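We modelled the chain as a single entity of 135 amino acids. Its sequence is:
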Amino acid sequence: MQPAEGDEILKDNFAAWVLDLGLTVEAVEERAATLRLPWSDRLAREGGGLSGQAMMAAADTATVIAISAARGGFVPMTTVQLSTSFQRPIVGKDLLVTARLSKIGRTLAFADVEMTGDGDGEIAARATTVYAIMG
């Protein structure tokens, strides 16, 4: 799968408010995907840091693209579990979100997600996700 195909999956399958985040697919591997969440003052919370809600939505979305890459295309799926640990704030820069599948089966997929500030490579947050695959 190419990044442009991942962008099409976003456009065709996600709610309008997720699309409003401006996520783009930067890279796709066989069992991984990296998305860019562009910095926006609209997504900043008090103190100026990127909101955790936006970061969690990006992690959840990156998992969908990684699963789609592993399965050769989008199929219906839904989040079963999402757990996030925030380690440092992101201020004034894009967030890169990389989801890597640790296991994918017929009905469940598991991923580890790292979120870093663009250009610094330092982890800002980590997440784990579990997805039910329904198609």
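As a brief sanity check on the tokenised model: The chain has a mean pLDDT of 97. The longest strand covers residues 123-133.
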